[in-house]
Amino acid sequence: MDLLSLPMSERLNLDGKKKAEYVRTLHEKFRANIEKKIQQYTRQANKERRRLLLSLETGCGSP
User: Fold this and answer.
1) Residue 48 is part of which domain span?
2) What is the 3-state secondary structure (H, E, C) of 1-34?
3) Quick one: DSSP state of residue 5?
4) Is residue 3 domain-resident?
């Protein structure tokens, strides 16, 4: 994570505890967003796999 992307008020704040807490909550948001994206990718991949399996079972040929 690049600290230059922090808001100016957070970069200028000299209180270490506040900055650490801000970065911790920022990391939690990033982690939640990454997990959400992984779930979306997994759902999409499973959907494509089901479609392929269904087409193979029915003998349609192309998915």
Assistant:
1) 14-57
2) CCHHHCCHHHHHCCCHHHHHHHHHHHHHHHHHHH
3) G
4) no
Residue 48 has pLDDT above 70, yes or no: yes
Both structure tokens of 51: 């479609």
Whether 37 maps to a domain, the answer reads: yes
Give CA–CA dist 34/38, Å, rounded. 6
Entry field: residues in the chain:
63
**pTM for the complete prediction?**
0.57
- Which residues does 52 contact at the CB level (< 8 Å), separation at least 6? 63
Assess if residue 7 is contained within a domain: no
pLDDT in tens, 11-44: 666 688 888 888 899 899 999 999 999 999 999 8
